Amino acid sequence: MHEAEKQAVAEAVAPPAIELKSVYVNSGGYELLRGVSLAIPRASTSVLLGATGSGKSALLKAAAGLLVPGSGSVEYLGKDMAKFSKKDETEFRAHSGFIFQDAALWANTNILNNVSMPLRVHKPWMGQSELAEAVRMAFKRLGYEEGMALRPSDLSAGEQKMVCIARAVVHDPDLVFMDDPGTNLDEDGLEQLFALIAELEERGKTLVIASNNSEFAYRYADMLGIIKDGVVVAFGSYEDTLARAEKEPELKLTRLRARGLREKKARRGAS
Amino acid sequence: MNILSSLGKSARERASTLLYGLGFFYNVITETLRFFKRSQVGYKVLINQILFTGYEALAINAIMAVAIGAAINVIGSSLLPQFGQSQLMYTILIIVITRELGPLLTAFVITARSGTAIATELGGMVVNHEIEAYISVGLNPISYLVVPRFIGVVVSMVILTVYFNLFGLLGSFVVVQIVNPTPVSEYLGNLLSLLTISDIFSGLVKAFIFGIIVSVVSTYQGFSVNRSSTEIPVAGIRAVGQSFILIIVADVLVTLVQYA
């Protein structure tokens, strides 16, 4: 068997990056997720579209182990997160990043400490100057230039979002969860974010994006999902989901259908 | 039937809250044992907690200790001679200050200052999703946020109780001079001859237990906030109320054990 064939077989049997199996999440008496099952393939970009309050954030947080399901399971590379040892948990966190919808910066410390925290946790040997350099590099990728000694409260909502994005990618994770990543960003910020997503895609990272902005799906989705009232009503390749939406108008996707199929560049870094 | 069903539901909820609380306490203890073994980033939080809970409360604790010591002195020196029991003055002063009021009042001060601060700060962090952000970068909120506050409050409580004892027993001497001038050597001699190790130890055991109560209840209440910012002050109020009740109950129990 050729190397390429062997690799193809290995990929076919490899577990997905994240898999949710019949996940139910309750909070404060409300059912946020109702029996969600889906598998996020490795080295792909999955975009979940849904209206406000449809359960996108809950789904993303459940997938990232930030919300514990009432029932069902979430697996990372085939391993049930509920059965994670401390080592597994640390490993997962070292290889993942999360962009929060409302930034979720730590108010009592400065920007440098906010962004460098993943490095201080997972690479404790790094010195102060190395940390500052790594943070500068992360900001450079986003075209962001603000004082690192400032506190989050000194920044605008858009700048806070940029800091949150930098914190999620500063340790170069393989898996990045993005909860409405475009919220509060101006046009320039949005373009920087698109450039970052393109760069991460090219390097073979697994991206999971929840948004109500179909632009993310049009530009980047390998996999496209639709969530409604806590239920994933469609999830498949971009083309398949779009084709399904043509037959099932209740799935909406009006804008994407109007734009038609697009040619997405093959991922160079995908393995 | 409805009454029975609602009673059953309420009992189930209370049992589940109690179990959750016990699980939380168990987690705090196990993470505390691990805290010093690893080079965690939580040391800064610990130092800040000791500064806020211990150092910044020194002044109010000293003022209270001197005032209480002086009051006991003034009341005792006017009442006890009427019964021919003037010699009991120092015994009462030592017992009341070191065994009872020192740890108890210090615990009340720390609950009012730090208990509310911890509960509302953590509650605010929950609402702003800062706790989720800590988890997302690989920091365990118990070991990074709770343990430093737990250790900080317990250490501060014990140190502040020693401080209260010193000011209560010695500082009150200055006030006593106004109503009942006494030579320093006589005052100190009487105090030291009656002060025993068990008096000091008894107060410190209470301080240690009260510290555990205040820190665990306050952090637990902080984390009990769900989504709304209106829950934050409620968490602060609950932290104070529950801490006071548990401190008083613990005080009675420890006193019963000591004198039984």
Give an account of the 3D structure.
The complex is a heterodimer of chains A (271) and B (260). Chain A is of the alpha/beta class. Chain A has ten helices and ten strands. Chain A is 39% helix and 23% strand. A six-stranded mixed sheet of chain A has the order 6-7-8-3-9-10, with helices on both faces. In chain A, strands 2-1-4-5 form a four-stranded antiparallel sheet, with helices on one face. In chain A, β7, α7 (187-202) and β8 (206-211) form a beta-alpha-beta unit. The longest helix of chain A has 16 residues, at 187-202. The two termini of chain A are 18 Å apart. By secondary structure, chain B is mostly helical. Chain B is 85% helix and 0% strand. Chain B is elongated, with a radius of gyration of 22 Å. The model of chain B has no long low-confidence stretch (mean pLDDT 89). The chains are: A alpha/beta (271), B mainly alpha (260). Chains A and B meet through α3, β6 and α4 of A and α5 of B.
What is the strand tally of chain A? 10
Bin the helical content of chain B: over 70%
Radius of gyration of CA atoms of chain B, rounded to a whole number: 22 Å
Beta-strand percent range of chain B: under 5%
Identify the strand order in the major beta sheet of chain A: 6-7-8-3-9-10
Number of strands of chain B: 0
Distance between the termini of chain A: 18 Å
> Biggest β-sheet of chain B: count, sense, barrel?
none
**Uncertain stretches of 5 or more adjacent residues of chain A:** 267-271
